[in-house]
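Read as amino acids, tokens; as here:

___
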Amino acid sequence: MTLISLEEAKQYLRVDSADEDAVIGSLLNAAAGMCRDVARLSDTQWKEINSGRSSSDSYSKTKMASVRETLRVAILYAVGYLFEHREDADHHKLALTLRSLLFAIREGVVG
């Protein structure tokens, strides 16, 4: 159970055809990576969050749900921004917005 599937991203972007699946898939991977980096998540944390199953005591069920939902919003925002601004994306502005969205995860205060 990944955080955002290609179909969810396409629905969010209101794309009906398969013509841009490769582009959207690449943007989805880039957006997820950016969010992971901005949130300062380790490989282990990312795997747990992405799968939805915590193998350690790092995330309670409530905290895991909260972190996943926050990351879903941030990833969808980033995908939408990158899709709409393919030619002129301001990555600094995007990073600042993601920092705001992911502040609680970055600082460990979610849950």
